[in-house]
Write a structure and sequence with these properties.
mainly beta; 10 strands; elongated
Length: 205
């Protein structure tokens, strides 16, 4: 192989490597570097996992999928962030067809009258010691009852993903008492406190 060919190949390899470094460096775990604007939840990468005590024998888990949510972000003013989410209660997956059907009844979600739950943020407070963490105060409406619910949120990463789509990822945790929303079936054997783990990847249109 002639020396000039080796030079061309080496230059091409360095160019590709440099491109990979640029693409990777566009990813950030620093909240202040996230692009401002309106985001929509990628429902394929956004779900809510719930867990509840099952008569002391186990912690039973399931998920809500096909969640719809909108997020606005302004890194220069993070407390101005807003979040609205709609959770289709008919899209619950407990890995049990019988339980999924029971959850639709008036014993639990009463989806014939209340097919969705909604969450609307009222305030966002960033942790002064950990800027990638925040507390979100908001209102959850379930079965026609609205109660305040606090969610702790961790920012994971933002930047271009496959296809060049700009994406921001978060995880959240919250706890609700189902009796606060009129769901008292099985108490006290079935747990009253329901833990929620929220996963969300939001994309910019």
């Amino acid at each position: 192989m002639r020396p000039v060919s080796r030079t061309i190949i080496a230059a091409a390899a360095l160019s590709l490597l440099a491109g990979g470094v640029v693409a990777q460096s566009a990813l950030t775990r620093v909240p202040a570097e996230v692009q401002a604007g309106a985001y929509a939840l990628d429902s394929a990468h956004g779900k809510i996992t719930w867990s509840v005590d099952h008569m002391g024998f186990s912690t039973y888990k399931g998920q809500f999928v096909n969640v719809d949510a909108d997020l606005t972000l302004d890194p220069a003013n993070p407390s101005a962030a807003t979040l609205t989410a709609t959770i289709p209660l008919t899209e619950v997956d407990s890995n049990s067809d019988g339980l999924d059907a029971h959850l639709q009844t008036a014993d639990f979600f009463d989806t014939a009258n209340h097919p969705v739950a909604t969450y609307v943020s009222r305030s966002v407070t960033v942790d002064p010691t950990a800027p990638n963490r925040a507390t979100v105060q908001g209102d959850l409406t379930l079965r026609g009852v609205t109660r305040p619910v606090t969610m702790t949120v961790r920012f994971n990463q933002a930047g271009p993903s496959m296809g060049g789509v700009y994406r921001a990822g978060f995880d959240g945790e919250a706890t609700v008492r189902r009796s606060d929303f009129g769901i008292t079936y099985g108490l006290p054997g079935l747990g009253d406190e329901v833990s929620l783990h929220i996963e969300g990847e939001f994309t910019r249109p």
